[in-house]
TrEMBL record:
Organism: Didymodactylos carnosus
Protein name: MACPF domain-containing protein
Record domain MACPF: where: 1-64
Domain of life: Eukaryota
Pfam family, one: MACPF
InterPro entries per the UniProt record, alphabetical: MACPF
Length: 64
């Protein structure tokens, strides 16, 4: 039994590596996480911005 996600339908006469090459053309999301865009406003991502924490707090306050 073979279970596939994405790509073309896997046929009995098809080799697995042939199916594998079709996945980029028809991918299927099987797992994802959603995070707040505000989580991107960090000192690690903006090391030169000394006020990034204050900016992040202000933007969060205004938009939430």
């Amino acid at each position: 039994l073979v279970t596939t996600l994405g790509g073309e339908i896997y046929g009995d006469t098809q080799k697995l590596n042939e199916w594998f090459r079709t996945v980029p053309k028809n991918p299927v999301i099987i797992k994802f996480n959603i995070q707040s865009v505000f989580d991107l406003l960090t000192t690690e991502r903006f090391p030169e911005d000394k006020k990034i924490k204050e900016k992040a707090a202000f933007i969060t306050q205004v938009l939430e």
